[in-house]
Amino acid sequence: MDHDSEKARCDIEHLERDGATKLSDQSPVDDEFDADEAKRIIWRIDRRLVTTVGLMYCVSLMDRTNLSAAAIAGMIPDLELVGNRYSIVTLVFFITYIVFQPPSTVIVRKIGPRLHLSFLIFAWGAVMIGFGFADRYETLVALRALLGLFEAGFFPSCVYLLSTWYTRYEVGRRYSLFYVLGCVASAFSGILAFGLIHLAGRGGLGGWRWIFIVEGAITTVLGVAGYWLLVDFPDSKRKSWRFLSDRERAWVVRRVDADRGDVTAPKFQLSKFLAGGRDPKVWAYGLIAFGTTTITYSLAYFLPIILNENLGFDVGTSQCLVAPPYAVAGFFMYGMGWLGDRYRLRGPIIIGNMIVCLIGLPMLGWHPDPKVRYLGAFFIASGANSNIPASLAYQANNIRGQWKRAFASATWVGFGGIGGIAGSLVFRSQDAASGYRPGLWACIACCLLIIVMVCVCDLAYYIDNKKADRGEKELENSPEDNFQPGFRYTY
User: Over the chain (491 residues), what is each successive 10-residue block's mean pLDDT?
Assistant: First the structure.
């Protein structure tokens, strides 16, 4: 082993043993690699980590939202989803999704992302295949609950994993890229579903069943591949991946530690994990997540139905017309993520996203021209979906401490799951004749709630930063993590 590799290994072991180490105790991060070498290392991390979890999130979003495509392709009459049964099928997913999220960020630290995430993906892919053979409403409900159980640990674990590899003003674009790939899935899932329903009659199965079977098979394959494609935490002792050398990995650990001072997780204690709940801003982030996902899930579950029932498009056209709004949303999302990182802004980006939504919601609900109403879906998809990575970056920039970060991630996703329940219910079948306007009013209220919460948080951050500048207050100084005097909130 050469001298540099031995030094890097010792650096990592020191961090793992003694907790977060201040930058001054290490060789200067900027002197470790020149600018071009540093960019190449970050690019390798992006290519391996962001691309892998982004592809996995593609199938996650596709598998949890393909009900709407199946619904208009014959599932509703075949399984007698009368009355509010369709809404119940959509929302039961979120019950188990919410309940089983909090332990996930603890488990992923214990057993590692490769085993944890690849198992979850393979398991829910098998459940998706089962959807294709469901013969009654009760079976569908049970499978949706099981799907929620396995998907519960995926998103918070991915968000947590990404946050450990990047500095505060790098995560915005990475979260955007991660979620952009999810938007691609949402964009083309309708087109894929349109193609799969033409398998109707093969094997004696209806076309809507093939949507679940084929997409479930794709998911299981990705779950198996994920065991080799995923990477571990940068400070982990596991040697299950080789895309960075020991020296490069030690550099990543030191630069993240210099930015936040919390790169290494202290030994897990339930009291430390739950202590994050004492911070009001953790719950404010949860409310922002609730409002955001209420809009995104309601659009995902009901846009094809609205296009079919209210705008007058046929089944195939409705499925295909879902793609353009989400494709545009992907570009908008990355642009907002770039702006947020470039100018170190978080709150104004979220407010801007909600203003875009507030433009689109009245267009979709009240304009007399179907083409203009469809245009409104572009604004809603862009603003609401862009708010997912924007609000995650807002949280990531203003939380210190590994277990507090883990608790905040679980809380964000838990409230997001509650928003999924609300999104499943706001568009009621009895409101179809009115163009689902009560549901649109609910989405407008969510936009206003988010704007208010961000304004309150940013005002509090401004006041706290001024106090810290005057030496009157220490920010994010938790006992389990080393204090970082230069830390300031991002608004």
Answer: 47 41 39 81 89 87 82 88 85 87 81 92 95 93 94 86 86 81 70 86 91 94 91 75 80 83 68 81 95 91 82 81 87 89 92 97 91 94 93 88 79 88 82 82 96 96 92 73 72 87
Domain chopping of the chain, boundaries: 43-234+245-264+273-469
DSSP 298-326: HHHHHHHHHHHHTS---HHHHHHHTHHHH
Q: How many residues does the chain have?
A: 491
**Could you tell me if 231 and 243 are in contact, meaning their C-beta atoms sit under 8 angstroms apart?**
yes
- What is the spatial distance between Cα 311 and Cα 305, in angstroms, rounded to a whole number? 9
| Cβ-Cβ contacts under 8 Å for 244 (sequence gap 6 or more) | 41, 44, 45, 252
Residue 83 — left, alpha, or beta (φ > 0 → left; ψ -120 to 50 → alpha)?
A: left
In the numeric block, which tokens belong to residue 109?
A: 């630290």
Which CATH architecture describes the domain 43-234+245-264+273-469? Up-down Bundle (1.20)
CA distance 232 to 108: 10
